[in-house]
Design a protein that fits this description.
With 264 residues, the chain is an alpha/beta fold. The protein has one domain (2-237): Glycerol-3-phosphate (1)-acyltransferase. Helices cover 43% and strands 14% of the residues. It is built from 8 helices and 7 strands, in the order αααββαβαβαβαββα. It has helices at residues 2-34, 37-44, 46-59, 86-94, 112-117, 129-145, 170-178, 220-237, and strands at residues 61-66, 77-80, 98-103, 122-124, 149-152, 182-187, 203-209. It is globular, with a radius of gyration of 18 Å.
Length: 264
Amino acid sequence: MYIFLLYLRTTLFNIGYYGSGIIVGTISPLIWLLLPFRPRYWLLSRWNLFVMAWLRICCGVRIKVIGPRCRDLEPYVVMAKHQSTWETLYLHHHFAPISPIVKKELLAIPFFGWGLASLRPIAIDRSNPMQALRDVKTSSVRRLKQGCNVLIFPEGTRTAPGTVGTYARSGADIACQAGVPIIPVAHNGAECWPHKQYLKYPGTITLIIGEPISTEGRNRKELTKEVQEWIESTIKTLPPGRADGVRPWASENAEAVGLDKREP
């Protein structure tokens, strides 16, 4: 019965999630033409708020945020753990306005890509990695000078809970070049909204925002190491996200990432 309810609630959520996404994505080009950036960002990011509210109503997923809002520090570079779709949606609203560094291919996705393109993302062309790094740095510094925060997932791709990817130094490099602080972010979003899984699980996602890290007189290597150590050590202190207490952490000894059920 429990599994049946999970499928039912997740299906209801997906209907609202994808249905509203199609609507917002369809009208976003028109909004792009009619409104300047900040009013456009505010309007389109209402969809992110709707998704979070709909997630709570349908799937029983609550959100607990710990840490400063950082409003008086803008602009800054946010370096966050990447586990799920959840953080890509929530962080867009929480640190608004923010330009995420994304794969260029995402902008070609119907509806979703159209909406994303209107929010000034920083697209990476992965066909030429060296040129991509230079272009991303230039575009990111320009966005920061325009008063827009920058969001980067330093591991480059989603990682399963309990695993650590390679932290790239590009986020720290951008922050140093622009002379802005870094905001580290840790969370357990994938415990309730797993990547590449259908079901959403009731519980509480905890998001912890670290104190701003000054880049003055620092180099990107030591900054990246500090961010990684803070994020990974903080994640280990987070309580179970799922209400049933199951922790879908990846096996520490598995060469290929697989999920097991580690009890808290």
